[in-house]
Amino acid sequence: MTQIYGNTAGLSNKGRRALERLYRRRVPLAQISSPELVRSLAEATRETKRQVGVLVHRSGGVESVIVGTATGLMLPDVGRLRAAQGRFRAIRLIHTHLYGEGLSKDDLVDLTRLRLDLVQAVLLTEDGDPKSLTWAYNLPKKGDGKPAYEIVPPQPYGRPTPDFGELIASLEAEFAQIAQLRVVAADRAILVHIGDKRKAGGNARARASLAELESLAKTAGVDVASQTVQLRERIDPKYVMGKGKLESVVMEAIDLDAEILIFDRELSPAQSSAIASKTDLRVIDRTQLILDIFAARAESRDGKLQVELAQLKYRIPRLGLKDDALSRLTGGIGGRGPGETKLEIGRRRADERVARLERELRQLSKHRAERRRRRSDSGTPIVAIVGYTNAGKSTLLNTLTGSDVIAENKLFATLDTRARQLRLPTGTNVVLTDTVGFIRNMPKDLFAAFKATFEETADADLLLEIVDASNPEFEQHETVTSELLKQLGLDHIRTLRVFNKADRVDETSDALMTAETHLIISAHDNKSLDGLRAHISWALAQEKTERESAELEAERLAELPPDVEP
Q: In 3-state terms, what secondary structure has residue 104?
């Protein structure tokens, strides 16, 4: 094989032949690089005026020849998956530096991220002859914050180098020993927030937004290794952040052994693919993270269908892009058939599946409408619990009704509507329903899919809006909830705002909310709910009185002669 990778545009025939001849070279295992290979690399560099590199296998053969620019080169894809724990890739990079400069940051990123055996730079003189050699190899992480690699200063060309075979065997033995002691943990991720520098309070918004993203990540079972923020005048159209910041994040991921970048925004398919290719990390955006949580937690058939529909609408624009992060979502779509490519089949089947899901959801919507009609005929009042995710809605339902709906200190613990009967102190029986929690920047496809679950809420006589009083961002949560209720067409329903988690609220906040005459409860404490039960009874009575008055007025107006003004 004589394929030349990288920046091949404009190569002369002589330069191309010099590059192709590199495939003939072999390097003994005891040597990092042979004198013959070094001289051939220098010759190819003189002909091309560009950096030239080779990937050499431990068996001695040259696997790839790469040509770059005068200051760098981009390695071909050597596989996104790392080697086994305690082992390297069994290939080393040998390449030239035209201006005598040492190993670059890109060299060290390739070394550590790709787990290469070793990276060596051949430093050339002004005439293009080999002057000195410098190299680096990976070291086990010690947790002291220092780089996990060793850089050997430039050594004069021709001086004996260490036995490469012995060096790599010793390093792999050390890595393997550490790997055996290592406890397998959850996926590790770095959270990334890119904000608008022109807006006031950017740092405060970033902290609050990252705190919520961290909660989402933990709910998804991800171990958050670090967080990073960059405020910019303009979002980079390709990488979202600046290239320098991206390189810094990659180096941090290497030091922290993180495999995932989670962005606190929705990325375009092209951005997600570009960042993944540039960093060799799995890239997940906020929308994908929320979809992942919903996919893991949906229980009812209705909920599962809605999640799958939202996933497909997210995935379809990304079909054909190289993005391993999509593997966190439910199974792939595709296959190969006569006359069509795998990508074409994937898109066609995805579109067909979307149509089937939408038909099934419409049918389920009819069934829900029938249940609501029967419930309405019974005359039983409906009270719906709404609010921001993790505000304590399910806990309140459990305490009020003595039921056992799943209630966890995680975001989106409840995804399916639950209904339970509650008997009020007045003797009135009501149906109390729990709903999926709201969140800022709810993915539009997910919001559209779950809009159907709020159909039953539209028939509610009263909404209980639960607010987590202990959350510093509770006012923003109130705003988000109000906006989403309006989008759902539920803002006309009488609403009782209830501040939960009173046991976690300091006196200042408590006094503030008391002055505003809001209800304050602790959903875990049944005794603290007596006032809430009384308020529900009062609000339902008011609603009934107003409804009956409106009905009487409508009847009166209907009985008036057409020529008589009301």
A: coil
> What tokens were used for 70?
């005068």
Tell me: the pLDDT tens digits for 193-226?
A: 999 888 877 788 889 899 999 999 998 889 999 9
Determine the distance from the C-alpha atom of residue 563 to the mean position of all C-alpha atoms in its chain, rounded to a whole number: 65
Show Cβ contacts of residue 51 under 8 Å, excluding neighbours closer than 6 positions. 45, 67, 68, 69, 70, 71, 72, 73, 95, 96, 97, 98
Same domain, residue pair 32 and 116: yes
Token pair of 322 as six digits: 């190289």
Residues 410 and 496 in one domain: yes
One domain, residues 202 and 119: no
**From the CB of residue 76, how many other CB atoms can be counted at a distance below 10 Å?**
12
Over the stretch 486-519, which tens digit does the pLDDT of each residue have? 998 999 999 999 999 888 876 555 545 554 556 8
The Cα–Cα gap between 152 and 396 comes to 63
Which sign does the torsion angle of CA 209, 433, 504, 533 carry? Answer: positive
CA–CA distance, 294 with 443 (Å, rounded to integer): 12
Return the amino acid letter for 152: V
Classify burial at 434, counting beta carbons within 10 Å of its beta carbon; exposed 0-12, middle 13-18, buried 19 or more.
buried
Question: Structural domain of residue 407, as residue ranges?
Answer: 380-553
Structure pTM? 0.68
CA–CA gap between residue 487 and residue 558 (Å, rounded): 33
Distance, in Å, from the CA atom of 135 to the CA atom of 151, rounded to the nearest integer, reads 6
- Spatial neighbors of 515 by CB under 8 A, at least 6 apart, are none
Element (H, E) at 119: strand 119-124
Last residue of a domain, one of 271, 296, 321: 296
334 phi and psi angles, rounded to 5 deg: 160, -155
The reply to whether 194 and 100 lie within a common domain is no
Which residues make Cβ contacts (< 8 Å) with residue 234, sequence separation at least 6?
none
CATH of the domain at 246: 3.40.50.11060
9 and 83 belong to one structural domain: yes
In terms of phi and psi (left: phi > 0; alpha: psi -120 to 50; beta: otherwise), the region of 377 is alpha
What is the C-alpha to C-alpha distance for residues 90 and 115, in angstroms, rounded to an integer? Answer: 9
Flag whether 236 is in a domain: yes
Cα separation, 469 vs 487, whole angstroms: 24
**Co-location of 209 and 79 in the same domain:** no
Contact at 8 Å (CB) between 7 and 16? no
Distance CA 38, CA 25 (A): 10
Inside any domain, residue 558: no
